[in-house]
Amino acid sequence: MWDQGGLIVPLNFRENEKAFMVELLDPLWSRSREAEILSAIAQMNGLRWVTIEVECRTSMCRLQSTQNVPVPPKGPDPVYTELLARLGYEPRLLGMARDINAGTVTYLMYLPRQ
Q1: Pick from 74, 57, 66: which is nearest to 18 by CA?
Q2: CB neighbours of 28 closer than 8 A, spacing ≥ 6?
Q3: CA distance linking residue 40 with residue 44, whole number of Å
Q4: Which of 40, 66, 69, 80 gives 50 a disulfide partner, CB atoms 3.0 to 4.6 angstroms apart?
């Protein structure tokens, strides 16, 4: 989780993480949904991914990714707006942590099961 490196994580994301970690695994749905999310990401062009982590449980998925971004966008990141649309979600709150020295931005979002 990103707070191990001293980055600030909003309280509601800590609560979501705690709920996510104790949730049971639905092996059929979770693996299928992880593959769908990774497939949607793979179809997007012009991204500078450093890391991508997708994990689904029973009622939600966690997507954490780091990108090389010289200047983070102000407002909703169009990359994630497009990704959410491809996955059938409305735009939603996502956590963001920026490492100025590395020129990276790490995003975290929790997606409910549809």
Answers
A1: 57
A2: none
A3: 7
A4: 66
The one-character DSSP state at 74 is S
Q: Is 6 exposed, middle or buried (0-12, 13-18, 19+ CB in 10 A)?
A: exposed
In this prediction, what percent of the chain has a pLDDT beyond 90? 35
Cα-Cα end-to-end distance for the chain = 24
What's at 71, amino acid-wise?
V
Least confident of 10-14, 56-60, 102-106: 10-14
DSSP state letter for 72: P
List Cβ neighbours of 58 (8 Å cut-off, separation of 6 or more).
23, 24, 25, 26, 29, 30, 113
- Look up residue 38 and give its amino acid: L
The pLDDT of residue 39 = 95
